[in-house]
Amino acid sequence: MWQxxxxxxxxxxxxxxxxxxxxxxxxxxxxxxxxxxxxxxGRRGAVQLTHSFVLMNSTHGQPDSVLQxxxxxxxxQPSLSIGKEKGEFVDCVVHRVAPTCALxxxxxxxxxxxxxxxxxxSSAKLYTVEQDPATAEAGxxxxxxxxxxxxxxxxLISPSSAAIPRMRAELGVRAVGLVLxxxxxxxxLPDLQALEQEGxxxxxxxxxxxxxxAQGARDFLRYIHSNPRYSVHSQRHGxxxxxxxxGSIDGTR
Length: 253
Ligand SMILES: C[S@@+](CC[C@H](N)C(=O)[O-])C[C@H]1O[C@@H](n2cnc3c(N)ncnc32)[C@H](O)[C@@H]1O
Hints:
Shape: globular
Strand content: 5-15%
Largest sheet: 7 strands, mixed
CATH architecture of the largest domain: 3-Layer(aba) Sandwich
Order of helices and strands: HHHHHEHEHEHEHEHEE
Oligomer: single chain
CATH topology of the largest domain: Rossmann fold
Bound molecules: S-adenosylmethionine
Low-confidence stretches: 9-39
């Protein structure tokens, strides 16, 4: 009897705290699993659960339904997908920039790739980079399930540091109009510098950068703010839209 008297109020408090801090929990999980720290069974299990849920509960061939199912999953389970709020920001930027070539660093289960592909001009192409092979396979399947074709996107399964130098040399990419950085925050600066080195970012290119509040993104932010070639155009939910103002930046090509 005394147990139910004590445990019922305690249970209500726990539920209230869980509801109140759910997004913080999600953010915590994202930061743990998005970079190197998430290697292993925890992340793999999360990928499998998301993948199965979306596969079973969405209408295949309909990107909106696939995205809604990802969002539904994230309402009750911790998820690494960027989520609806930030996703809508991504939608706006992609629609406005209308790049002919987009690059995503950090595919995960394909949520943002699907959002980007939904808004890209019909002749445009998305390159999406994921370093974990099992995750990349799940992400690629989700993108195909949403109804997109290999002519519209290409999955690069490797660390971003290896994928970027391949883009011009092997894939013939000459410029990237939009880059979404949602991978390892410590890689943001070296990857931007590699994109500059390859001459892939130039006037009008836009960088959409997630988790800029993270400690590891400090060097990247310092670089952006101290470099007149970049200007922060907008910011929402810790996500930064950075515009590139001049012609090919320090490009060696
Ligand atoms: C937060 S998740 C990306 C979420 C995804 N953009 C979405 O919202 O659908 C980060 C992903 O980046 C991958 N990743 C981390 N560092 C990477 C790197 N250096 N190169 C490529 N992928 C990386 C992780 O394996 C993980 O799947």
